[in-house]
Amino acid sequence: MEILDAIILGVIQGLTEFLPVSSSGHLVLGGELLGLTESHLTFDVVVHVATLMVTLGFYRASVMGIGKSLVQNLGSVFSLTTWMDGFKAWPELRLLFLIVVGSVPTAVIGLLFKDELEGLFGSPRLVSGMLLVTAGILWLTTRRSDTSRGISEMRVRDALLIGLLQGFAVIPGISRSGSTIACALLLGVERELAVRFSFLLSVPAILGALLLQVLDVLETGHVLEPVPMAAGFLAAVVVGVGALMMLIPLVNQGRLHYFAMYLVPVGILGIVVLP
Predict the structure, then answer these.
(1) What's the rounded Cα separation, in Å, for the pair 20 and 111?
(2) Dist CA 48 CA 44 (whole Å)
(3) Using CA atoms, how far apart are residues 101 and 108, in angstroms rounded to an integer?
């Protein structure tokens, strides 16, 4: 992989991982346009590490709050009563509890259908069609204006449903951030919380994907040159921070569906032009 190719794919990853337009879909289409038809496992690991760093760095206050609350209430964490109550007495721990709950359907889908879903990455036309599905999901958010439910009002079934959509977003072309944020908004969750929950929910999924990719890299022994990896990593981090800073105000203003106006022509063009 050339340095310029790594930078371009890093920029695509940084933009599309956080903007609701499907990072996997754009990496497939970008790779097709650049002629990179083979998967580079090492590069996948690098850009996922970049995504993880941006997410944890941007939401470091929430992450540190969860850690502090865990230490202060360690005894209660192992109480069956506390689990049955859903940690309602501690907002930070309830957020962690719902993230754990939401990660379950994601893990089940990822483990059971991993091989079948990975096969979809070889069909750019199918990926383009899934971009149209993402556009439809985003447009649905225009039908819900009442978004006032905080963390204490979020229910276990809400987290399970959001996690289920995150699991289906393994399909390239289905935006993970777009589908989970849209689902939370349609359930009436506060806009800021919808975005924060979406990206914190991605952390266990990214860690799981990283583990599997690292094992694949160790098995194949295929490692890219350090300079392209570093270039792609830096591009993904810098652009990712900017993308997240752009997304939050748009969600707060009720404009998530604006991204559908980009996805529709891209999806149609991909179906018509790509094999």
Answers:
(1) 24
(2) 6
(3) 12
